[in-house]
Amino acid sequence: MSSNAVTEFGRLILGMTVALACGRPEGVPPPPRPPVAPEAVTERVVDVGGRRLHATVRGSGSPTVVLLSALDAPQDYWNTVTPMMAARTTVVTYDRAGTGKSELGNLPAHAEQLARDLRVLLDSLHTPPPFLLVAHSAGGNVARVFAFKYPETIAGVVLEETQHEENLAGMRKVLTGSDLATFERDLASLFDAPASPRTERDFSSATRDQLRRARPLPHVPFVVLVVAGRGRDMRALFSEAGTERIVALDAELMKSLASSVPDGRLIVVEGSGHNLHVDKPDALLGPVLGMIADIQGRDRDTTARRPLSP
Fold it and tell me: Domain total for the chain?
């Protein structure tokens, strides 16, 4: 197998391109979109202590929607969905350490540090909680650790095409014979941390360990979105039976992730690639705009019940 193919499949398992299919489709029609007017846009570069991060704030109001990108993905790839969100509330996009216009700096780039970076960034931007975290792919790792570390700030979490920290260990358990030998030969070494890790990719193993400790997540609205059929291209590397074992493993892991929060939902989307918010933006906007409306409705109800000052 060529080194390019091995790298692509390694990235597949890490969740950096596509992940694996699971669950049954559940249709969730998006709520009606509001008219999209030009929103206020503010760009800033913020020193979070050890590195400077580039961020953009759009719209106004509560909750604050925070968009967390995939590995190495710049914040502007959210442009297919930010106008609709910013028409209703405040939206923050940013480049994580070493991506886009943000510095890598000298701090580690594992999920715990990236979550601390984000908290400092949001405070510096004067974008207060409650936060609605919307994360794509590896951005889901940071979102989950952030929600665990700062549960009192979280109003909801939507994970798009994320991955589970037990995929790698699980593959070693479910693969057998030549499939297991292929995995160990071609993919296992891709998960080893380098001697001097620097980038978010380098810290993947540390992040997986941190995710195992980042439990439970707060009891807030929680949605996991996955693309139907993802992962079956792995038949180019594994046997048909081995591929189906991997798909079944991931199905159980994604169901487990969604059910880790009471009333969490797993939604499987047909006909999209890994960048679901680009290919089928309504599939992401449906749950996100629904959560925004619910949070704002609760805020209005709370305000209405407050007694008037004498």
Answer: 1
